[in-house]
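Researcher: Let's do a round of design. I'm pasting the structure tokens now; please hold your answer until I've finished.
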């Protein structure tokens, strides 16, 4: 079995993760859940990516939310 098969982030780009979360929650809810100015003040994928690439703690929060969301979706399907 592939060692990466259990890692939900494997093969995912930051852009695809962010686009998924924006589609799922929208910028307003993301800004409420994760206190990041780029989600609340004139939000865009581009500006958010720039910030997230420079800010490791914010990227971790986004990745954690992504994993949590994916896990919740999987549980609902079962």
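Researcher: That's everything. Go ahead.
Model: Designed sequence:
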């Amino acid at each position: 079995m592939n060692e990466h098969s259990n890692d939900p982030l494997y093969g995912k780009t930051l852009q695809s993760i962010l686009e998924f979360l924006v589609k799922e929650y929208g910028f307003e809810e993301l800004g409420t859940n994760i206190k990041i100015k780029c989600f609340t003040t004139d939000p865009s994928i581009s500006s958010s990516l720039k910030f997230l690439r420079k800010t490791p703690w914010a990227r971790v929060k986004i990745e954690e939310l992504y994993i949590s969301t994916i896990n919740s979706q999987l549980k609902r399907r079962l």
